[in-house]
Amino acid sequence: MPEPVGRSQRYMPGLDGLRAVAVLAVITYHLGFGWAGGGLLGVGVFFTLSGYLITDLLLAQVASGRVDLGNFWLRRARRLLPALFLVLAVVTIWVAVADRSQLPGLRGQVGAAAVYLNNWWEIFHHIPYFARFGPPSPLNHLWSLAVEEQFYLLWPWLLLLGVRFVPERRRPLGVRPRLAGLVLALALASGAEMALLYHPSFDPSRVYDGTDTRAFGLLFGAALAMVWPSRLLTRRVRGHARTLLEVAGTVGLVTIAVLIWRTNRYSPFLYRGGIVGLSAATVLVIAAAAHPATRLGAVLGWQPLRWLGVRSYGIYLWHAPVIVLTTSTVNRGTDLLRAAAQVAASIVVAALSWRFIEEPIRRGALGRLWAAARAGRWRPRSVSARARLGLTAAVAGVALACVALAGISPPRAVSSTLAGISVNSAALGSSLPPPPQTPTVSFSARGGQTRTTTSPPVSKRSAAAPGPRPADPARAARTSCRSVVHLGDSTSEGMISTDYLPNPRRRLAAQYARVGVRHEDLEITGATSIVETLPGGINAYEVARGLVGGGYHGCWVIALGTNDTADVYVGSSVSLSPRIERMMSVIGDQPVLWLNVKSLLSSGPYAESNMEHWNSALLQACAQHPNMRIFDWAAVVHDSWFIADGIHYTSPGYAARARLIADGLVQAFPAGGATSPAGCIVNP
Fold it and tell me: Which one of 3, 215, 351, 570 counts the least CB within 10 Å of its CB?
C-alpha cells in the first residue's frame, strides 16, 4: 500500500513488496507464460491483503473512538476512482478509433465497471472469464476490483455490528479473537460454497467471479487483522518467536509460488480448496511481512519491489488493456519482445498515472482546487507548468504506448463482430454455386433459436449408405447425403454466427447446400458433451436419441469431443471410448462423419495431449463401424486459425472449418456412384 496520508495506520513496506509479487504473477498469467499457469492466483493474494489492511484501519478507528465511515469511503474513492475512470476513458476511445466493432459489447462493461458491478454483470450475462468465445475484453480483469469495492461498502457495517455484539475478554486494545473466529467461519463457508457450486465439466467463471464465492480471501485477511493489528507490532520480540514468524512467512511464500507454478485456471483442486489454501498461505506471509522485526518483511520491502507495489493498482488496471489491445488474436505463443514491451508500457503508464493523477488526488488536490474555485482564486494558470506537463505526458504516454505496441504484433484479426473476412474472402465467396434448391435449416432450440424445419421427413431410402473402401478414393463435387444432422459444441458456433461470418454464403448451412445437402439440422450448443448435461439442457446423446426416435434417418456430422475429453480429464466416470459407442448405438447404420479435435494448450483439461487420446479412441471405434468416417481436422487446421484461448477459432478459421467439413462430407459419402475412401480417415 502507499504510505498512509496522516497517522491512522503504520506503513508496512513488506506488504507493498507482496503486492508487487501478486501483480507480477497476474501479468505473467495474462501474457500466457506456461510456467505461471496459476498466475491468476495473484488476485487472491490481493484480496487477502485488502481484507487485512481495511480491517486493520477500521479497528484502529474503533480503538481510538473516532470511526468516520464517510471519510473512509471518501478516501477509498479518491484512491481508486481517478485511475479507473482514466482507464475506462482511454480504452473506450482506443476501441472507438481502432476497432469500433467491439463498442457494443464494451458499453455494458464500462457502465458496470464504473459502478463496481463488473463481476455480476458478467455472471448475469453469462460471459465466461476463461472459456471466452471470441477475443478477450480489455476490461475483463475489472471483476476483481468490483469484488473488493463491494467489500469496502458492506464490510464496515458488518464489522461494527460484530464489534458491538460479539463480546470479548479483556485483551490488548483492538485484539478480538472471538470475532476473528466468527469471521473465519464465514470465510470457510464462502470457500465451501465455491467447492459446492463448482462443476469440473462447466466453465468455472461463476464461482471464480462471484463476490459470495470469493469473499473468503478478504475475510481471511480481516480475521488476521483482528488478532494481529499492525499498531501493536513492535521490534521487541523474542528470538524463537521471530524464528517462528520467519519460518511461517517463508512457508507461505513458497506455497504461493508452488501454486502459481503447478496449477492453472482449469485445475479442479483450486476450486475445491486450493484458493482457500492460497488465502491461508497469504495470511502467513502477511503476518510475517507486517511485523517490523522480521527479515522477510525487509526482503519484501526491497526498494524496487516496494516501488512496484505502491503502483500495483495502476499496473493492474493498465496491464490487461495494454496486453489485449496490442496482441493479435491470431498470435500463438508468447513473443518475448512483445511481452517485454507490454510489461514496460504498463509500468510506465501506471507510474505516470500515479505521479500526476492518483497521488495528487489522494492528497487532496481536487479538494484544494474546488475550494480555490469557490473562493474565486482558481485560474488555469495557477496549475503549475510541471503538473500540466505531467498530466499531458500521462495521457500521451498511454496513446503512444498503445500505438507503438500495435506495431510489434500483427493487427487484431478478429473481434466479436466483424464486417468482413480478411483472408481470401472474394475467392471463397465466389466459389459457392447456387444450391439446387433452397435448403431448409433447423437450428437447435438448445442454442436459443427456434426450430424452423419445413421440409418433409427424410425416408430411410433417401439416406446415403457408405460404400466400400477401395484403395483409391474417387472424388466428387457433391455428397449423396440429402439430410444432415450436425451435432456440435462451441467449436461449431462460429460457423453459424452472423458476427463471425457476416456473409451467409460462408456459413455452415450454405456450405452444406453447396455440396448437395437439402436439409440441415444444426444442433449446436456451447459446452455440449455426449454424457454431461448443462443445467436445464440435454446432452448430445439425448439429442440424437430424440431425433432418431422422431423418425430421422440420414447422415450425421459429429463435431464433439473437446468437452468430453476435458470431462474425462477432470474425473468423469465415463471414459472416451464408451462415449463414442454410446453415440454409435443410437445412430446405428446411418452414415456418420466424426471430426477429430485439436488444441493449442499444453496443460489442463483442454491440453492437446488429452485431445490426442480422443482422436485415438475415434480411430479404434471407426475400425468397428463400417458406416463411420473421421474428418482429420487436426491435420488440416492452421495454428493461425485459433484465437487466444487455443480452442476456438478466428473468422477465417470458422470459414475454412465450414468449407472443409462440407468437402469432407463429399469425400466420405460422395454422390454419382463414386465410392468412399479407403480406411477411416477423410482429409479433403
Answer: 3
Q: Answer yes or no: do 358 and 478 share one domain.
A: no
For residue 468, the domain's CATH number is 3.40.50.1110
**Per-residue cell: 335:** 513473443
Q: What is the pTM of this model?
A: 0.72
pLDDT, tens digit (0-9, with 9 covering 90-100), for 456-506: 333 333 334 444 443 334 445 899 999 999 999 999 999 999 989 999 999
Query: In angstroms, how far is the first alpha carbon of the chain from the final one?
Result: 59
> In this structure, what C-alpha cell is assigned to residue 630?
473421421
pLDDT, tens only, 142-183: 999 999 999 999 999 999 999 999 988 877 667 999 999 999
Q: Which residue among 406, 422, 451 closes a domain?
A: 406
Q: What is the mean pLDDT of residues 307-322?
A: 97
Give 638-643's long-range contacts (Cβ < 8 A, gap of 24+).
639/332, 639/600, 640/330, 640/332, 641/330, 642/330, 642/332, 642/600, 643/134, 643/135, 643/329, 643/330, 643/414
Same domain, 468 and 375: no
319 and 342 in contact (C-beta within 8 Å)? yes
The total number of structural domains that make up the chain: 2
Mean pLDDT taken over the chain: 83
Name the pLDDT band for 393 (thresholds 50, 70, 90). low
Name the β-bridge partners of 424.
none
Residue 169: C-alpha distances to residues 158, 183, 415 (Å): 20, 17, 60
**HSE-CB for 328 with a 13 A CA cutoff:** 18
Q: For residues 113 and 178, state if they share a domain.
A: yes
Please check whether residue 559 lies inside any domain of the structure.
yes
d(C-alpha 313, C-alpha 308), whole Å? 9
pLDDT at 432 over 80: no
Instruction: With respect to residue 647, please indicate whether it lies within any of the assigned structural domains.
Output: yes
Residue with the larger pLDDT of the pair 250 and 526 = 250
Distance CA 12, CA 293 (A): 11
Signed CA dihedral, 88, 90, 93, 98: sign only: negative
pLDDT tens figures, 5-33: 555 567 899 999 999 999 999 999 999 88
Report if residue 590 sits inside a domain.
Answer: yes
- Which candidate, 13, 43, 14, places its Cα nearest to that of 27? 43
The length of the chain, given as a count of residues: 684
How many Å apart are CA 194 and CA 203, to the nearest integer?
13
CA-to-CA distance for 657 and 115, rounded, in angstroms? 41
**Residue range of the domain that includes 511:** 462-682
C-alpha cell at 187: 470465510
Residue at which a domain ends, from 390, 406, 422 = 406
